[in-house]
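Justification of computing resources. Each target in the renewal requires a structure prediction run like the one illustrated here; the chain below, 361 residues long, is used simply to show the kind of job we budget for.
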Amino acid sequence: MNTTVLTPVHESLGAKMIEYAGYKMPVEYSGVQDEHVMVRRSAGIFDVSHMGEFIIRGHGAFNLIQHLTTNNLSRISPGKAQYSCMPNGKGGIVDDLIIYRLDEDIYFLVVNAANIQKDWHWITSHNRFGAMLENVSQNMSLLALQGPEATSVLQDLTKTDISDMGSFTFHQGTIAGVENVIISATGYTGAGGFELYCESGSAEKLWARILEKGADKIKPIGLAARDTLRLEMGYCLYGNDIDDTTSPIEAGLGWITKFVDGNDFIDRELLARQKKEGITRGLVGFEMIERGIPRHDYPVLDMSGKAIGRVTSGTMSPIMKKGIGMGYVPVAFSAPGSEIAIGIRNKQLRARVVSMPFYKG
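Resulting structure tokens:
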């Protein structure tokens, strides 16, 4: 099992450790409820160093990434980032990712941990543009500092002005003496904050200094709360809500699928046809009307009890105190307000399709 450089630190803090995407990772420290509320109300720090990072550079870099991804890469200049996905040539999704434009011809791609090797093979196999590729996943660590108190704590540790950074912008600066940190105004919680990329040798120092500076405002947070936080926001998780069998149009990711002139990405024609002619199923969010906790792979039913889909992600919202989830259903059941049912422990419990995000803050 792989580890991050912070694995011994998590164990020393008493974290419950699990295997996730081939890595030994902290799933919780003080409990999901406590950690979730801490991020929403104050701040939390996550070790997400299992994520993969690639650098693509050279004159062919732009054309390679534009060909591989659905979003319009020309919209981002150096200092900006973009959420996108890579279609697989069959209408499905190889992975979703964040693209950082470090310089005119230098890009930094962040991919899901379970897909590092798959993504690397996919990207290199399509590099007919002469771009230079480097997999730096083993040399990079990623800390996510999330929550309303994140800015005040982090600002005390850096001379870089982070007070008014726009969403999906980034700076490269020094934090707590750690140089060349990518300070990114991104995150997977909907609580605001930053993602911090640094060389792995500096990760423990950065982690310790942030916790020390924010001793009364920050707690370490595990993967379980990360999952409940992202689900309250309706953010997709690869392997659950999107995968090689789901198209970005079906998954509600039409907003990152740009059919603009010059954006000749893989599957463009197929996805444009889906957008124009419509789809037969779509990813929806739902809230439980009757008390119950929807879980991954539970059946989604119509009111007669007929199976019409399955739950892709589900939980009991720690903030809203009700069961919430996502799943693919026929378009006839996808309008907000539509009543469906979830099969939970041999019971058919009523639920209602709602607009996402679930948590409005």
